């Protein structure tokens, strides 16, 4: 197997070439008559559910990008920024790698911290001041 047979996401995560489906479609936008004749835009399909990436990464991917997945669990990326098929193909693959890389590392655990005594005091003083302002907004009585 050659090095080109994978999309390298991280040191440990690679997406095999056979998991991807590419189809070329006509792109809209500038390009003159070329737009009407040549299919330069690429539509990249990747089945997240059936992919070979680790289960934890797969779960984080589905949680973060679930709205972009089809009912079958496929991610569809369209790249039509460039006027050449090869550049659009690379752009779609880079976008896929970036998406997987963003969920590759698990999120850090939050360490609980207590507020400082001074910050608690400032918060309570602010609440007292706000309460005093609101207390002055009483009903106007007609005693003259």
Description:
This protein is an alpha+beta fold and 144 residues long. It is built from 4 helices and 5 strands; from the N terminus they run βββαβαβαα. The protein has helices at residues 33-37, 55-65, 85-102, 117-135, and strands at residues 6-8, 14-16, 20-25, 41-47, 74-79. The strands form 2 sheets. Strands 3-4-5 form a 3-stranded antiparallel β-sheet, covered by helices on one side. A two-stranded antiparallel sheet has the order 1-2. The longest helix has 19 residues, at 117-135. The model has no long low-confidence stretch (mean pLDDT 85).
Strand ordering within the main sheet: 3-4-5
> Could you tell me how far the N terminus lies from the C terminus, measured between alpha carbons in angstroms?
96 Å
CATH-defined fold name of the domain at 3-102 = Double Stranded RNA Binding Domain
Reading the helices and strands in chain order gives: EEEHEHEHH
Mean pLDDT across residues? 85
Beta-strand proportion: 15-25%
